Amino acid sequence: MNHSIHQVDAKRVFAFIFAAVLVSIGLRPAGSQDAATGASGADAAAAVEVNADASATIESEKSDSDEIEDPPYTPKTVAELQKLLSPIQFKVTQNEETETAFRNKYWDNKKEGLYRCIVCGQALFTSETKFKSGTGWPSFYDPISKERIGMKVDFRLIYPRQEVHCSRCEAHLGHVFNDGPKDKTGKRYCLNSAALQFEEATEKSKSAPDKKR
């Protein structure tokens, strides 16, 4: 009788040790392993979906900008620019001067179309983001894409300002301020008409669905 009891106890001890070994080497019941694998797979799928959405958004923004064709441009010398541009266009784009408010070409322009750089022809802003700022200069709350403009700090006045220029030829365009439409970007790109060339939209482009830029 005692001998049988000892055999049973020995089996229990062996079973306990075996179970402890399994736990120590990281083995788990098949059910829990499948559940963990399923959760991991779900997380991976969710990550792929988020990345796909982000990529789609980026590609959409690129495609909107890429649909706009820009003319080829070869950098010009100062002498060539003086012949190409009017005196006020040269002063604004090359010397960073500012034209007179309310006495410039596009401050009250309400036509649909593109605003290109007067120097190189690169498309910069559209009429879709133009708004009435009351300043007397053409104002926009967003460029076509951030890649089409450049910015730097301007210390020409007592206080620093954010200067805006064309990213392709570096022609001075104007300045950007933080008092634009709050329901949009909150930015006001205050530009000189002399730095811009307006290209009116064709009937075909006017009838096309509006695109978010």
Automatic annotation (TrEMBL):
<dbReference type="Pfam" id="PF01641">
    <property type="entry name" value="SelR"/>
</dbReference>
<feature type="domain" description="MsrB">
    <location>
        <begin position="78"/>
        <end position="201"/>
    </location>
</feature>
<dbReference type="GO" id="GO:0033743">
    <property type="term" value="F:peptide-methionine (R)-S-oxide reductase activity"/>
</dbReference>
<dbReference type="InterPro" id="IPR002579">
    <property type="entry name" value="Met_Sox_Rdtase_MsrB_dom"/>
</dbReference>
<dbReference type="InterPro" id="IPR028427">
    <property type="entry name" value="Met_Sox_Rdtase_MsrB"/>
</dbReference>
<keyword id="KW-0560">Oxidoreductase</keyword>
<dbReference type="InterPro" id="IPR011057">
    <property type="entry name" value="Mss4-like_sf"/>
</dbReference>
<protein>
    <recommendedName>
        <fullName>peptide-methionine (R)-S-oxide reductase</fullName>
        <ecNumber>1.8.4.12</ecNumber>
    </recommendedName>
</protein>
